Structures
1.
Amino acid sequence: MYSIPHLDLPPLRGASGRVQLPGSKSISNRVLLLAGLASGTTRVHGLLASDDTRVMLDALRTLGARLQPTERALEISGLGGTLAVHEARLFLGNAGTAMRPLAAALAVLAATQGGRYELSGVPRMHERPIGDLVDALRPLGCTIEDLGVPGYPPLRVSGQPGGQLATAQPIRVRGDVSSQFLTALLMALPLVSADRDVVIEVQGELISKPYIEITLNLLARFGVHVVRDGWSRFTIPRGSAYASPGDVHVEGDASSASYFVALGAIAAGAGAPVHIDGVGGDSIQGDIRFVDAARQMGAAVKSGPNWIEVRRGRWPLDPISIDAVHIPDAAMTLAVMALYARGTSRISGIASWRVKETDRIAAMAAELRKVGASVVEGDDYIEVAPPTHWQPAAIETYDDHRMAMCLSLAAFGGQPLRILDPQCVGKTFPDYFEALFGLATADPAAVPVITIDGPTASGKGTLAAAVAKRLGYTLLDSGALYRATALAARRDDIPTDDAVRLAAVASMLELRFDGERVFLRGDDVTDELRLETTGALASQVSSVPAVREALHALQLSFRRAPGLVADGRDMGTVVFPDAPLKVFLTAGAAERAERRHRQLLDRGIDARIVDLRAEIEARDERDRTRPVAPLRPAEGAQLLDNSLLSIDESVDRVLGWWEQRRPFP
């Protein structure tokens, strides 16, 4: 996951390949709570790893459930409906799928078994309504205190052992604000249904009905079979109790699938579709109906058990007019697809957007306007007309994962896009951007490049790695390519003057980067590449024109979305002469010898500074005078003397130059 302030996307142009969806958030947190409340041990397969599931897992541990990760699943030994911990403070982040059901379950358990629990979250959670759920629970006899603004978290629920709940009469709850209130009651009330049927009546039109279908399906898996009378009356049979089904497999997230369905509709050619694994037409999730809406707009979609395949069909897309009350989360993706339609689209039935992680109607309208769209917003609808002129934009994400993911698709409009706070996708899909870049392609000339060149021991590798990390860009350590070539040649007993064989080694270099480790022909050679002897040999190998030509194509292949930071001695002069930012490091030989001496001492290698300086000066001379790509600043390069700068100061200097070249307001 990208843990950076912003992520810049170049203009994207095509997409193809295969993606594995993470587990459904809605299913994951429901299964976790049901397993925690049930008797027996449940093995949960395919669980979503995200911020929302993390807070639920933390809450279950705090409440006394036993959680044991195994190689293939998470084993949860449930509480069997009996409280093990009678006082706790639970922090639930911004997870409505944790806050609402846990508040209801703990309220009824505390009222009958005794206990005191405080539930809180991030500031935005304290702005998300819970009053309708509280209003349904208090008449039962649940003690619930507002610890902040009435009707909103944080809350305290409490009670005394032996308490009784008034379940003889129907429990009434509003259904027109959030379906999570009904879900919370459906999950909590089987805990107190031993003596009589418990009836829940919904007041008003129930929204997001497909999410209630998920709840009912999962309740049945855990042994509670709710009788439904339309969408207004639900009966939990007397004697209901949760029992583990043994194994539960979590489907891939259908809401997350919407981004890749849209990706295929926008950018996948006829012969190279986007293939989505983890959810299919047989899904129990309501958001799978997004596929029908995408087809209506022109997507060519096929599906089967646990998979969906999408290509571009009609283009531009057809505008859509849809009541999206049944797919409120996935409907956000339709608003972005509307950017690529031939007319104005209208998405209605989305009043629930107002009370989600942010006010999504207002947020979506503001961000779509930034890229050039014309937008009209209402209480429960949004109308989107595509841009006549696309604009570069910095997209605010409002700490809302779905804003970040669906708006990333605006990068296909021909202009660069900045996603602010990209790590907010960790709520449901931590690796979303990695998955996107694994499928999407960009014109290499449009992929931004920063080159960092300089003499040996100038710190260019350290600086390049730090800059790449701060930007979320790919890193090309070109020196590692030459050192690996030199190392492979030495292992094959190839002399440094045998240009033909050296070029052959370079052209077939079996090199793999895995984080900070480097593997040559399957062997970890990270430490060996850093040896002075390897560096000296690489200096000789790099002067061979045939070797440089053989490695040139490999170097160019690193230029891929979202961007590249390349360090070496000729990145700005030869390999990427069109890079928008070229940096040339300068530092005196004495200072570089001191740095190299400290590095060697840290590795337990003894060396004399005077010898190191002599080696550095000799290598500088070779690099400056070699006939092929001699070491020199590229035209227009920014000179950076880092002799007296810390690495952080150097990084800030480079990023300052970079920001001046970005097109975002």
Note: The mean pLDDT is 93.
2.
Amino acid sequence: MNRSVPVALAAVTLALLSACGDSEKSETNAGAPQAGGTLRYALSQSPTCSDPAQSGTNQTIYVARQVVDSLTDQDPKTGELTPWLADSWEIGGDATSFTFHLKDGVTFSDGSPVDAEAVKNNFDAIVNTLGAAKAQLGSSYLAGYTGTTVVDPLTARVDFATPNAQFLQATSTPQLGLQAKVTTDAPAEQRCLGSNVGSGPFVYSSYQQDRAITLNKRAGYAWGSDVFGHDGEAYLDAIEFTIVPESGVRTGSLASDQLDAISDALPQDAPQIEAAGGAVLTTPNPGTPFGFTPNVTRPVLSDPEVRRALVPALNRQELVDTVLGPNFLPATGTLASKTPQYLKLDDVTYDPDAARSILDAAGWIPGPDGIREKNGQRLLFSVTFSAVFAGNQAILELAQQQLADVGVELVLDLVSTPEALARQVSGDFDSLYGNATRADGDILRTSFALDGRNNNHRGPIPELDLALADQLATTDSEERKTILGDAQRQVLANGLLIPTIELSQAIGAGPNVHDLKFEASARLQFFDTWLG
């Protein structure tokens, strides 16, 4: 089967965007865009690495995305894949082969060509040099990779041992963005120090990971994505990122014109930002919603009935209303509602009586303090989480109360982001709290497959394993959506994810900032941004 661009994977549910206050600052009365100026932006956490291939957190990607282009781009409103570095592509009939025809005349910022050899160097390096330990997402996107063939200087064929239909959407992500040979030849640690050479609209000028990062405009840039709002170079001369963990300090600095935009604006920050003439821009993240990921090898959580009871025990609307406010959504499934292939699951509803009945039937009996016990074991588990998302602790404290109401004791275990990641890999946790962002339902395979992260440290579940494999074997969007619907049901039925709320980005923008936009995975795109 051959397929040329544009390719639509699935439609995004547009109604949900407006329902949760999705917005971009692009006023029609602001006049024509003006070139020049330096945007001052405050990140809420330090980036983890300057390398897009090794990036994972939102704050890291906000920076790294600007220095690399990708083979394709994804329209944030339709989910459609559109040209970027590749003008067109074909998919082999069994989804094991993808041939990309590259734009002519594109260069990396060191002057070297963006050609088929560069495609090969990038994908080979992710698989053979970085590996799954350093490039978790990129390696999962390249599962079964057998190599890239340089058909001619502007034609690259990427081959896989088994069908890999998700790969096409993966080529729109920053993790598979292209970088020059000087970067792909470097060891993983060196690639994190700010010397990355991409073909993107901005280049690294200075990089101090825990303090400040400066990006300068790439002169002569002329190969932007079809999703971008204008042609040619970026409007901004530079972007200065600083690390400001305290929400109040970020907001105060924005209101006093010491900053132009900030990450993670909290609901209580909005009045101060708006009083200064700014706005809070929001959009929900696609991917998996925030929730508990149980380690099914642990006592208590090894009982599938306990995991099943946790789903109706949580009042998700109360979590949103009490902690987050109207720009956030309660989770309604094991994919977030903005994800192509999303399926609303009726079982994700609040019903504490149902939770109690499940636990009663499984032999968990309330003790003197209300917490249930079985065979001398207390119904207690811990949740490991980091503060990378500002509302995590408050949400978990409220969830702690909700679970106690049905006889479950939850212990909160706050750790650093690196520690949380280390425990995820080692399995040293009862449950993890977090989410994963991607504008494609294959995020379920990345997170839950036996040959993916297998965050639950589970054994085989034949129906789930079959669905996660089968969705890779079809390029028909409706068929793939149906298969991923089965996978979503299986993840919930087996208690592999206990969903809570959907993550939304909330960006504070000052009155002089225009056309600050979200891309398909809800990360920022600064190419069209300008200062008035």
Note: The longest strand covers residues 145-152.
